[in-house]
């Protein structure tokens, strides 16, 4: 078997996946810039607090993240069926569901931010920073829900370039506003780490506005805001989105639990873990971006009645992702000290992070199968299968072992990171087996 797929199929993957991958890469860079700006304050508690607040926010928005995959799968399926006037109907339903879910979630997180952060840390300084940061991020949940739904539409119609353009504009605004609020530039107040949360909140609403006007201009012929949401379509959207949202919620809860476990080892370990996870996301999110290309390619092939082609697309994208992640991960295991030095000047944190970062870079190619086939299965409508596999391995295997090996037996951060790489490799193996069985090809959405 060749290392990469045939030229015409590679061209299709790159044409669709590169803008999505670029958008995900820009999101990773944004996370890294935020970490670098907060890290430059020279305060471990601030870095740890933003880390905790950020992953609490991940838990909060996880409830609406499933809308993106649901909208994308249904839009691509209708495009494959040639139903041009109904392509945007799933977007209408996705926006309505997102609004109804986001409003009560925002109110709860905003009013209970200090209590929620206090559940994860006993350090008063970390709690103060984390709760303020999380409160601002929580205000943007409505905008995040809309952004995921719009992203699903544009990727589903194979115009991922629009997603990339809007995401870059949103991230540039985020960097500029966050920088001004963190350090008190351009006449704005100096808010420190809290300013990063407010800057991101503003950028999320800016991005939602850009998406809305772009879709209003080009999506009306596909039915955007032209049709009243139908109960049948709403039910299909919920059937696709809720298992994925629940999976994202429990996965995010697992990441937050991992942060709590590492916090039991020490504050320094918690601070460096925040850097390490953001660096891991630098590789993971582009991999997910290629996986989202697989979502569209698989769903569209199934809509056109070509299950064998859908099967081939899954493996073709896995091969491309494996090569891409190997190349992108090389600096992590070749020059880890240099990479970590971009985010902290503390020699203790750099020393703690060297080997975990090497493990991240080396193991990421093995993770490509899980990253891509997760999204491909979502495109086929197998959201319950994806949820069961991901949550089973994470909650029944990895997290109990991390708790036992870390705080209980004193294994430290390196041991926990080795276990995490093993858990991701197991995930990839299971998803490969599920894809080969092809049960997903018979699902109707």
What is the number of beta strands?
Answer: 0
Question: What's the order of the H and E elements?
Answer: HHHHHHHHHHHHHHH
Task: Give the terminus-to-terminus CA distance.
Answer: 33 Å
As for the number of domains, it is: 1
How many individual helices? 15
**Unreliable runs:** none
Oligomer: single chain
Structural class: mainly alpha
Beta fraction of the residues?
under 5%
Average pLDDT number: 85
Shape: globular
| Rg, alpha carbons | 21 Å
Tell me roughly what share of residues is in helical segments.
over 70%
Largest sheet: none
Note down, in words, how this protein is organized.
With 445 residues, the protein is an all-alpha fold. The chain has one domain (7-442). The protein has 15 helices and no strands. Helix 5 (124-138) runs parallel beside helix 8 (193-218). The longest helix has 38 residues, at 44-81. It is globular. It starts with 6 loop residues before the first helix and ends in an 8-residue tail after the last helix. The mean pLDDT is 85. Pfam families: MatE (PF01554).
SSE layout and pairings?
Blueprint: H1 7-39, H2 44-81, H3 89-111, H4 113-118, H5 124-138, H6 141-156, H7 160-183, H8 193-218, H9 231-265, H10 267-303, H11 307-334, H12 336-340, H13 347-380, H14 383-408, H15 412-437
Supply database-style keywords.
mainly alpha, globular, antiport, membrane, antiporter activity
In short:
This is Multidrug-efflux transporter. This protein is mainly α. It is built from 15 helices and no strands.
């Amino acid at each position: 078997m060749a290392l990469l797929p045939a030229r015409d199929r590679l061209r299709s993957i790159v044409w669709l996946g590169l803008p999505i991958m670029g958008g995900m890469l820009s999101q990773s860079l944004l996370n890294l810039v935020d970490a670098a700006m907060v890290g430059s304050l020279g305060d471990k508690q601030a870095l740890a607090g933003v880390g905790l607040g950020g992953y609490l926010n991940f838990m909060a928005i996880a409830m609406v993240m499933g809308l993106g995959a649901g909208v994308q799968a249904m839009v691509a399926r209708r495009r494959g069926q040639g139903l041009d006037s109904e392509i945007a109907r799933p977007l209408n339903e996705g926006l309505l569901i997102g609004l109804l879910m986001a409003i009560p979630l925002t109110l709860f997180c905003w009013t209970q931010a200090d209590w929620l952060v206090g559940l994860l840390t006993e350090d008063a300084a970390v709690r103060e920073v984390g709760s303020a940061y999380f409160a601002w991020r929580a205000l943007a949940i409505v905008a995040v829900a809309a952004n995921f739904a719009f992203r699903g539409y544009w990727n589903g119609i194979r115009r991922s370039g629009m997603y990339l353009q809007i995401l870059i504009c949103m991230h540039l605004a985020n960097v500029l506003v966050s920088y001004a609020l963190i350090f008190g530039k351009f006449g704005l107040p100096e808010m420190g780490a809290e300013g990063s949360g407010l800057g991101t909140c503003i950028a999320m609403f800016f991005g939602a506005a850009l998406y809305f006007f772009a879709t209003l201009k080009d999506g009306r012929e596909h039915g955007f805001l032209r049709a009243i949401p139908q109960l049948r379509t709403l039910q299909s959207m919920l059937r696709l989105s809720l298992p994925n949202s629940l999976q994202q919620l429990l996965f995010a809860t697992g990441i937050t639990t991992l942060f709590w476990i590492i916090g039991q080892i020490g504050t320094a370990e918690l601070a460096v873990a925040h850097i390490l996870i953001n660096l891991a996301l630098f590789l993971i999110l582009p991999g997910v971006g290629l996986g989202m290309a697989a979502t569209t390619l698989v769903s569209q092939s199934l809509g056109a009645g070509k299950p064998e082609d859908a099967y081939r697309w899954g493996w073709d994208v896995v091969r491309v992702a494996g090569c891409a992640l190997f190349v992108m991960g090389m600096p992590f295991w070749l020059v880890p000290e240099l990479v970590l030095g971009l985010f902290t000047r503390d020699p203790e944190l750099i020393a703690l992070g060297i080997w975990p970062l090497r493990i991240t870079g080396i193991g990421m190619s093995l993770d490509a199968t899980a990253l891509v086939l997760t999204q491909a299965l979502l495109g086929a409508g197998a959201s319950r299968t994806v949820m069961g596999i991901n949550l089973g391995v994470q909650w029944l295997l990895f997290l109990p072992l991390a708790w036992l090996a870390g705080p209980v037996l004193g294994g430290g951060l390196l041991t926990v990171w080795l276990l995490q790489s093993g858990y991701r490799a197991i995930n990839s193996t299971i998803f490969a087996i599920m894809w080969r069985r092809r049960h997903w090809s018979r699902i109707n959405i």
